[in-house]
Automatic annotation (TrEMBL):
Protein family (similarity comment): Belongs to the MIF family.
EC number: 5.3.2.1, 5.3.3.12
Cell compartment(s), UniProt: Secreted
Predominant location category: secreted
Organism: Parnassius mnemosyne
Keyword Secreted attributed: yes
Gene Ontology terms: cellular component: extracellular space
Catalytic activity: 3-phenylpyruvate = enol-phenylpyruvate; L-dopachrome = 5,6-dihydroxyindole-2-carboxylate
Keywords per UniProt: Cytokine, Isomerase, Secreted
GO MF annotation list: cytokine activity; dopachrome isomerase activity; phenylpyruvate tautomerase activity
Protein name per Swiss-Prot or TrEMBL: L-dopachrome isomerase
Amino acid sequence: MPCLKILTNIPKSQIPRDFVDKIIPLLAKILKKPENKFTCVISGDCYISFAGESKSPGATATLESIGNLGPNENRVIVKELTDFIEKEIGVHRDRFFLTFYDLSSYNVAKSGVTVEAASESQK
């Protein structure tokens, strides 16, 4: 159940309506997981400052996943996401900040059960 959350000072009106539809296939490819497992949220009109400067476009994001993250994987992921963010919403790479969270299955839930419990019940 990977989840990408993006906060940006780009006005909501300037974020393409199909942004999440376009980023999900990219996430699925680079994280090697099915598209139907992903959640993506982008929130515009946020107050963001990078190095004391808040007028230029900027974004911060978190990517959470159960597995498929690590030193080598994260290098690929950050390059792909940075390129996509720059192309789609105009945030220059030096004003995009991304953090990764490799989650345990007992710390993620959907449909009222943890992923760990759902996996155990399918055995």
